[in-house]
């Protein structure tokens, strides 16, 4: 019989493996020597595409860096909970100090559901040559399939997008060469199907396609359309136009069957197709800006409705008001599905104060598409001034 | 002579075990690492004296508990805005859901209640040892244990079966 101690042990052993020895001794020596450093009092934190400002008087010597020493094993890795990088826990100033992050601590880290964290040196992370003007395109893509079992990343060595199965360790390279310079100039969006067997690519002209990962078979997307959500084999591929956000479905003959105009405007990302492939969901209803503001006119109202669409016809099946919404709910994106009727949504989770490094991350919830009931799932956080976090299915 | 002689060995042997306790106390991997590092830096600075005391682990664990409670007091308004457990991925398995529910409930205990649960039911410490580590009386430990378990029961009724085994000693201790 499971006891309280068993459960506490289970929680405790999910703590990441740490090796603090040398860092602790360095800090102890520095403090004994009475060395105190000062730093700028303002930093800018960027999470994914969201920008928000925090202020603080952080001393560089006090910043805790989550040093990840283990690299991803060749095989036998369990499903991932998330991936992140954190600019080494240091203050990142676009266009000023970006070049200095060509080092291990700025690489992508992947975290398994059991709490093991590994670095992925083979996956390009931050663009150290990026200009200040193009600072929103900060890092090479890293995407996790909704089941957590495959990661998609850019292999600079191969000049290709790669898909890796974590359990077997097998890596497939996606057809088409992509140079680092091309990625630095313009982002590429990667959208794996729930089990990672297919991959949607939204890139520059000629790169819009759906790839069968294991065979390399490519289905090109007709010009003017881009991939938005990809189901597993046999399930639909949802596409959209670039400008007016019109949706459609990719037919078997490679043409697009356009959907009727949407009755509600999607907040951001659409969900993946539901497990039966027949539905798609998205959040709507949000107004104002996402970032903290003192301007009443810009006060935001979070999304309050979940909409489901028929993936065959594009007809709106039902808009349902969210209920049991927890305080602080700020989800904007829909991702994978927990069950045939529950979709996972996500929004930023962050906390900052004047004297410590901010906590950044994402909060996920499940939403029942029949009732609108919102249930918190998990908060994935890391401590940094800037960085990015990727969740399975998003 | 290196003033940190023996400290590396101590870290090699005990830091992960200390990390487990820190993680249970904070409920967040990064805060746990933060907390542990902060305590260990203090331990390292005074290592020769602490090593001479003969039980550096006990000293470090006591410092960990005190620092945890102190952090909470200083930072609770800024650092703990959510009641949800951080750093936990979703897994639809029952065991994970139970673990998630327990983490969520633990996050809503006071720092002292949480410390009592960790010391008594994770580290298997006696009432007297717990009192010593927390710097309070054994009576306070007993009442904190009682309140902590009661609150866990209220916050996570689904986990009542986990708390069943804790009932008898807790009730007995309260009566003493």
User: Going by CATH, what is the homologous superfamily of chain A?
Assistant: TolB, C-terminal domain
Query: Oligomeric state of the chains?
Result: heterodimer
User: Helical stretch count of chain B?
Assistant: 9
Inertia-based shape of chain A: globular
Tell me the CATH topology of the largest domain in chain B.
Answer: Arc Repressor Mutant, subunit A
Strand elements of chain B, count: 0
Instruction: State the secondary-structure class of chain B.
Output: mainly alpha
Uncertain spans of chain A, ≥5 residues at pLDDT below 50? 35-65
Overall geometry of chain B comes to globular
Assigned CATH superfamily of the largest domain in chain B: Winged helix-like DNA-binding domain superfamily/Winged helix DNA-binding domain
Q: Give the class-level CATH name of the largest domain in chain B.
A: Mainly Alpha
Order of helices and strands of chain B: HHHHHHHHH
Low-confidence region ranges of chain B = 76-92, 168-176
Largest sheet of chain B: none
Rg of chain B to the nearest angstrom? 17 Å
């Amino acid at each position: 019989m499971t006891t309280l101690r068993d459960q506490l042990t289970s929680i405790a052993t999910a703590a990441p493996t740490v090796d603090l020895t040398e860092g602790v001794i360095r800090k102890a020596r520095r403090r004994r020597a009475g060395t105190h450093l000062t730093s700028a009092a303002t930093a800018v934190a960027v999470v994914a595409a969201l920008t928000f400002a925090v202020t603080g008087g952080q001393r560089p010597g006090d910043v805790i860096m989550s040093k990840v020493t283990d690299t991803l094993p060749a095989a036998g890795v369990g499903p991932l909970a998330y991936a992140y990088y954190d600019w080494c826990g240091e203050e990142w100033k676009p266009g000023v100090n970006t070049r200095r992050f060509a080092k291990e601590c700025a690489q992508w880290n992947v975290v398994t559901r059991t709490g093991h964290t590994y670095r992925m040196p083979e996956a390009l992370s931050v663009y150290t040559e990026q200009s200040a003007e193009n600072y929103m395109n900060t890092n090479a893509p890293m995407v996790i399939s909704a089941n957590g079992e495959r990661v998609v990343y850019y292999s600079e060595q191969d000049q290709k997008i790669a898909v890796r199965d974590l359990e077997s360790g097998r890596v497939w390279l996606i057809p088409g060469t992509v140079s680092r310079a091309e990625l630095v100039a313009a982002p590429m969006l990667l959208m794996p199907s729930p089990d990672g067997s297919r991959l949607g690519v939204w890139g520059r002209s000629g790169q819009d396609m759906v790839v069968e990962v294991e065979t390399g078979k490519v289905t090109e997307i007709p010009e003017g359309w881009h991939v938005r959500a990809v189901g597993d084999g046999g399930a639909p591929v949802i596409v959209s136009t670039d400008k007016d956000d019109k949706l459609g479905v990719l037919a078997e003959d490679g043409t697009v069957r356009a959907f009727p105009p949407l009755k509600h405007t999607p907040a951001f990302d659409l969900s993946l197709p539901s497990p039966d492939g027949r539905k798609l969901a998205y959040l709507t209803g949000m107004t104002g800006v996402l970032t903290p503001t003192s301007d009443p006119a810009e006060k935001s109202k979070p999304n309050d409705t979940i909409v489901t669409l028929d993936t065959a016809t594009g007809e709106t099946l039902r808009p349902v008001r969210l209920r049991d919404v927890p305080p602080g709910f700020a989800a904007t994106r829909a991702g994978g599905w927990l069950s045939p009727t529950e979709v996972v949504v996500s929004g930023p989770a962050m906390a900052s104060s004047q004297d410590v490094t901010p906590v950044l991350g994402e909060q996920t919830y499940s939403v029942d598409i029949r009732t609108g009931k919102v249930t918190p799932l998990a908060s994935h956080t890391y401590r940094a001034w800037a960085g990015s976090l990727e969740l399975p299915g998003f | 002579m290196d003033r940190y002689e023996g400290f590396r060995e101590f870290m090699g042997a005990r830091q992960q075990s200390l990390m487990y306790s820190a993680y249970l106390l904070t409920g967040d991997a990064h805060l746990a690492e933060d907390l542990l590092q902060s305590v260990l830096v203090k331990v390292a600075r005074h290592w020769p004296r602490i090593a001479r005391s003969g039980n550096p682990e006990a000293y470090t664990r006591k410092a960990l508990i005190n620092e945890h409670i102190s952090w909470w007091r200083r930072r609770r308004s800024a650092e703990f805005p959510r009641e949800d457990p951080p750093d936990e991925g979703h897994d639809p398995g029952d065991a994970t859901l139970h673990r998630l529910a327990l983490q969520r409930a633990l996050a809503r205990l006071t720092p002292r209640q949480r410390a009592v649960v960790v010391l008594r039911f994770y580290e298997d410490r006696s009432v007297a040892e717990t009192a010593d580590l927390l710097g309070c009386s054994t009576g306070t430990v007993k009442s904190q244990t009682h309140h902590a378990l009661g609150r866990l029961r209220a916050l996570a009724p689904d986990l009542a079966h986990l708390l069943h085994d804790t009932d008898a000693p807790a009730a007995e201790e309260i009566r003493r």
